[in-house]
């Protein structure tokens, strides 16, 4: 079912399929310091150095976008909208998303430090505006490591949530998504009524690379711009950043030369075995 | 005092989201420092409260000595009530156990849980709500926070005051201190390895906290039924739980196959240790992903962490850098793991593990 080509599925549309034919998926993407960069804490402890540092799309967001694109390619959705909140440079991240295959994008021009509660409210406003059937996000951003936004927007929308998804299967007739979740003790499977919020875990898929022709094509795709005021969202900051510091350094260890020496150290120096 | 908190909660509900300044002026007052009451969202399994949830109680205690701590358990059936009596005596600081017994709460789904906590908060007007940063806590707590219009703080490793918390960011490469300046409740998930629980000695007489049933007659049903639990699969294992183990033995990509990974398992058995893995080992299919240690997997802080064939990528170090002693065995003398290892051994793990198996003392 899922693998059916969009062109053939269009030939035999049932009433339900027609509804789903118009199904929209919204994907939230975040611009973060590239995952491979070794970050540096600013000397005034006000944060982490981000100027002149390589920035990329958050890896979990790439996975979210990839999943949306695969759903569209299987004929179950008609449009994928990428959205991002933050300063002007977020447009670069959205262009990356468009080059991967998103149909259009929305940028909400907002301050650089937005807490998940504000992002969730902005997302809710965009959902109310665009009326997607599915909202897909990464499970966490690798900079603030919050793991909150998807759950919060699901709460605000009163939609069911499928967090830490490692497998997503849509059922077009029943209007449900079956989501396999990575939980502490193993895997858990839930069935969610659409519309729903899904957050992605690393093992959901392998995101594609944007090809050069697609990067060129992406330049002509539309990025719509909003301000929080236009969306009627007040940016709430009930958290104050006090300081950012380096984690305590581990003191240098020793290289031992044999298994016997290692066992001896563990026994008589560390007293752990 | 409780009445004031309820009033505050009601007031906040009446004017959602508009005036952060007026609501935060409440919390800056002395009221909070004089009256701290915490609701701990607890998980239970097989009739007892999970250790990570008991850590959340320890964290609640760290907020204030005077904290009045209530533990909330939900579910249905006899194991819930067994867990409730365990909760009542599992930590001396617990003053009340709340039990929500309903079919709708039989599985820990986010939607009914969030409504439940919302309801309990309206009744109790707690100043703090805490859960462990388990997959349950991370799933449920932010949803509740959104319903209550407050910003939660994830994965707290240190509590410096009733509103002052330290949490790692950038995969543990920086520590961020934040002050919560919003209205009640202040919501946290805590890293359980940072709030260890002292085992209760059998002879210590623990006072038992009263167990109260939550009145679910006003349970809001808007979001219930929109998600259904289908099933759960897990690997049966006799080894200790990865999150709480005293010793963890981890294998990376260099193990080359699931078959070879058995060497790690053998060594773990000998040491009474839990088995961990890197993302590479999980992705290659050597072991199931619940064994992944790192930024996106489990965070562990055992007394001894032994890494075999692990290069030490930033994302992996995020999950184990707080271990007391780290041992690294790797062929590559330049592997980053050696920079954090207390004891490093450069060599072939296929020679070293068998030698360790032979020479390690028998575990009593």
UniProtKB/TrEMBL annotation, chain A:
Claim: Electron transport is one of the keywords in the record: yes
Residues annotated as domain Electron transfer flavoprotein alpha/beta-subunit N-terminal: 45-235
Keywords: Electron transport, Mitochondrion, Transport
SUPFAM superfamilies noted in UniProt: Adenine nucleotide alpha hydrolases-like (SSF52402)
InterPro entries: ET-Flavoprotein_bsu_CS, ETF_a/b_N, ETF_b, ETF_beta_N, Rossmann-like_a/b/a_fold
Subcellular location: Mitochondrion matrix
Alphabetical list of PROSITE patterns matching this protein: ETF_BETA (PS01065)
Gene Ontology molecular function: any one: electron transfer activity
GO CC, one annotated term: mitochondrial matrix
Gene Ontology biological process terms in this record: amino acid catabolic process; fatty acid beta-oxidation using acyl-CoA dehydrogenase
Function comment: The electron transfer flavoprotein serves as a specific electron acceptor for several dehydrogenases, including five acyl-CoA dehydrogenases, glutaryl-CoA and sarcosine dehydrogenase. It transfers the electrons to the main mitochondrial respiratory chain via ETF-ubiquinone oxidoreductase (ETF dehydrogenase).
Family membership: Belongs to the ETF beta-subunit/FixA family.
Assembly: Heterodimer of an alpha and a beta subunit.
Stated name of the protein: Electron transfer flavoprotein subunit beta
Automatic annotation (TrEMBL), chain B:
Keywords assigned: Electron transport, FAD, Flavoprotein, Mitochondrion, Transit peptide, Transport
GO cellular component, one term: mitochondrial matrix
Lineage: Eukaryota, Viridiplantae, Streptophyta, Embryophyta, Tracheophyta
Name under which the protein is recorded: Electron transfer flavoprotein subunit alpha
Keyword Electron transport: yes
SMART domains reported for this sequence: ETF (SM00893)
Localization per Swiss-Prot or TrEMBL: Mitochondrion matrix
Swiss-Prot/TrEMBL cofactor(s): FAD
SUBUNIT field: Heterodimer of an alpha and a beta subunit.
Biological source species: Tetracentron sinense
Record-level GO BP terms: fatty acid beta-oxidation using acyl-CoA dehydrogenase
MF-aspect GO terms: electron transfer activity; flavin adenine dinucleotide binding
Organism superkingdom: Eukaryota
């Amino acid at each position: 079912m899922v693998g059916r080509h969009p062109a053939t599925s269009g030939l035999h549309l049932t009433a339900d399929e027609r509804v789903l034919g118009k199904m929209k998926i919204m994907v939230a993407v975040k611009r973060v310091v590239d995952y491979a960069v070794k970050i540096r804490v600013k000397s005034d402890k006000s944060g982490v150095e981000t100027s002149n540092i390589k920035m990329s799309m958050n890896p979990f967001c790439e996975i979210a976008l990839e999943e949306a694109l695969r759903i569209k390619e299987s004929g179950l959705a008609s449009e994928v909208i990428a959205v991002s909140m933050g300063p002007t440079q977020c447009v670069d991240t959205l262009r990356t998303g468009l080059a991967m295959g998103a149909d259009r994008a929305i940028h909400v021009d907002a301050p650089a430090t937005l807490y998940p509660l504000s992002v969730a409210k902005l997302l809710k406003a965009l959902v109310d505006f665009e009326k997607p059937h599915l909202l897909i996000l990464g499970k966490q951003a690798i900079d603030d490591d919050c793991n909150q936004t998807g759950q919060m927007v699901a709460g605000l929308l009163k939609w069911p949530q499928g967090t830490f998804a490692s497998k997503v299967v849509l059922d077009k007739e029943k209007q449900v998504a079956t989501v396999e979740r990575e939980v502490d003790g193993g895997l858990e499977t839930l069935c969610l009524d659409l519309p729903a919020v899904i957050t992605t875990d690393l093992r959901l898929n392998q995101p594609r690379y944007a090809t050069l022709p697609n990067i060129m094509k992406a330049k002509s795709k539309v990025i719509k711009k909003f301000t929080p005021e236009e969306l009627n969202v007040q940016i709430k900051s009930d958290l104050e950043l006090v300081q950012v510091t380096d984690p305590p350094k581990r003191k240098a260890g020793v290289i031992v030369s044999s298994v016997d020496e290692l066992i001896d150290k563990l026994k008589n120096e560390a007293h752990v075995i | 005092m409780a009445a004031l908190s309820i009033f505050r909660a009601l007031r906040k509900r009446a004017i959602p989201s508009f005036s952060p300044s007026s609501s935060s002026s409440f919390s800056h007052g002395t009221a909070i420092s004089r009256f701290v009451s915490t609701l701990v969202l607890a998980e239970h399994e097989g009739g007892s409260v999970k250790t990570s949830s008991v850590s959340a109680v320890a964290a609640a205690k760290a907020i204030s000595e005077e904290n009045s701590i209530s533990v909330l358990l939900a579910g249905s059936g006899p194991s819930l009530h067994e867990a409730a009596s365990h909760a009542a005596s599992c930590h001396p600081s617990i003053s009340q156990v709340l039990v929500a017994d309903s079919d709708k709460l039989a599985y820990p789904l986010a939607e009914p849980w969030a409504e439940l906590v919302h309801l309990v908060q309206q009744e109790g007007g707690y100043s703090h709500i805490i859960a462990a940063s388990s997959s349950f806590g991370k799933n449920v707590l932010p949803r509740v926070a959104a319903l209550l219009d407050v910003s939660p703080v994830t994965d707290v490793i240190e509590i410096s005051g009733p509103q002052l918390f330290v949490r790692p960011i950038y995969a543990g490469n920086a520590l961020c201190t934040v002050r919560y300046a919003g209205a009640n409740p202040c919501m946290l998930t805590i890293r359980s390895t940072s709030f260890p629980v002292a085992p209760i000695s059998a002879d210590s007489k623990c006072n038992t906290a009263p167990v109260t049933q939550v009145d679910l007659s006003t349970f809001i049903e808007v979001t219930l039924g929109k998600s259904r639990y289908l099933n759960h699969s897990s690997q049966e294992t006799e080894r200790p739980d990865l999150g709480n183990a005293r010793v963890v033995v981890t294998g990376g990509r260099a193990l080359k196959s699931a078959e070879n990974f058995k060497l790690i398992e053998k060594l773990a058995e000998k040491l009474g240790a839990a088995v961990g893995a890197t993302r590479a080992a999980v992705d290659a299919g050597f072991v199931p992903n619940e064994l992944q240690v790192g930024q996106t997997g489990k965070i562990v802080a055992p007394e001894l962490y032994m890494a075999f064939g692990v290069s030490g990528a930033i994302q992996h170090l995020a999950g184990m850098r707080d271990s007391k002693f780290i041992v690294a065995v790797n062929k590559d003398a330049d592997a980053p793991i050696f920079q954090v290892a207390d004891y490093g051994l450069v060599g072939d793990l296929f020679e070293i593990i068998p030698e360790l198996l032979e020479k390690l003392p028998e575990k009593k």
